[in-house]
Amino acid sequence: MKHIRNFIVRTGIRIPLIAWAVIVLYPIIWMIIGSFKNNAEIYKDPWGLPETFSFQNFVTAWNEFNIDISVFNSLIVTVLGIFITLILAIPTAYALERIRFKGSGALFTLYISAMMIPMVLGWIPLFFLLMKLNLLDSIIGLSLVYAMSQLPFSIFILTSFMNSIPKELEEAAAIDGMSSYGILLKIVTPLSTTAIITVSIMNAIQFWNEYFMALIFLQSEQKYTLALAIDFISNETQYTNAWGALFASLTIAIIPVIILYAIFQRRITKGMTEGALKG
Amino acid sequence: MVQTKKQKYLFLAFCLVPTFILFAIFTLYPLFSGLYYSFFEWSGSAADKDFVGFSNYIKLFNDEIFPSTILHDYFLVVTKVIGIMILAIFFAVALTQLRIKEAPFYRVIFFFPNIMSVVVIGILWMFIYNPGLGLVNSGLEMIGLEEWARPWLGDEEWALPSLVLPSVWAGIGLFMLLLIGGISNVPKSYYEAAEIDGASEWQQFWKITMPLVWPQIKVSILYIVITTLNGSFIIVQVMTQGGPNNATHVMGSYLYQQAFKQFNFGYGATIGVVILIISLITVLILQFFMRREKVEY
Predict the structure, then answer these.
(1) Are residues A147 and A17 in the same domain?
(2) Where are the transmembrane segments (chain B) (predicted)?
(3) So what's the ipTM on this one?
């Protein structure tokens, strides 16, 4: 009796699970398929399969809608952002975790609470600050802003990881006469590779996807990141009807994320749940 | 090697000072400066920056649109919390308590929208809601409910509720995983004992699962509330830009419009200050109401 009931429950529970999986997957798959259709097909049968697979939309998006430049810009922002974040976060995380000093707790709390503050208020003065520093409408300026936005999260993940590294290695190195700088660079940083990779993947996804700060701090089309370029194409479709190119650029935007997720699924979910637990 | 005090502090400064200076310039200074700006009327050029005291705040309280943006924000907060929590709890329980072989598959799939760009999510859902081509309207037509079909995002009454579904769609995975983490920490023996005592699965859920994963539920609710109040304007900007007729403006998108579209930077900063105050108060109140004795068996 119990077995039969269990079987029914388990089958019944699968219906909502499968339904939600379809709701999640269908639009994404449809978008990717749509990028291979021509406009006529999109209008005739928007949610069906294409009759012929064509890469024309990708060519159009790439050549006529500046997607080539914006992919390049997004790549630069992402890589530069990751790099700046690491340079700033690793030494701070190490000092906060390993060196005893007055105010270390307060400083840590200050960084962490910045994760919860709505930055939208700060964006107005930041806009004028960047203007003064000649960093407005600049990929470098945006990378710096991005790095600062992910700094608290990165410090948090790195400190909690460094906490799990045994102190003995550092102590042994110090006895051998290695300087603190050497220990940080040659012992702690390599030992923290796991956390550094996790943080960098999370930041990569964040920077690659980011939209609103780019909207505020970039102005000329030549500087657009992918998210901005797509938003621009989307807003123009009512005049250009370039649905195919829009789908193609959405696909270009999502594929790196899918690849990262396929490779680093565990790290990404762990990083995000840890970040949320702290927030 | 024994470090001298001086060496220690030099190293400490090397580690902390550059980062902190940049953090102070690009994060702390803008926040305080935003507070300062809120007392000025300012269109962006240096010449016409006038100190106006609290008049921006007074203007904000008499603003015709602003109160509705607060309501819209809270509408999104409440509907998202309810929608996400119900589904996330349901999926988390289903994937842990009932031995389903393909559970990892669902976990992987359900989480993916959490790492999609808001731009991609927004544009995808604009298509789903598209009056002519969209899934929602064609779906309604297919099951014979044509009269329910409408231009969802262009309809003043339905545009805001239409924004809830994309947010729930994109948010569930993370909270489901948080709850799964909580549930898998509950010792199996509790459920076995309850089973022997004849407790139904429903009773087990309310008497064991819910109290023991309360910390995760609390964190999830707080997180949804904070991220919605601090970030709901992003999906609004992508999908409706506050329209039609301001029906979907939230506080953040209204700030963007005032500051960066109409160049009322002082007024925009005032909105920012109010957003900050409102979200801090909301979080404090929530924390007060959700405090609950830690349950241990």
Answers:
(1) no
(2) 9-32, 74-96, 108-128, 158-180, 220-239, 265-289
(3) 0.90
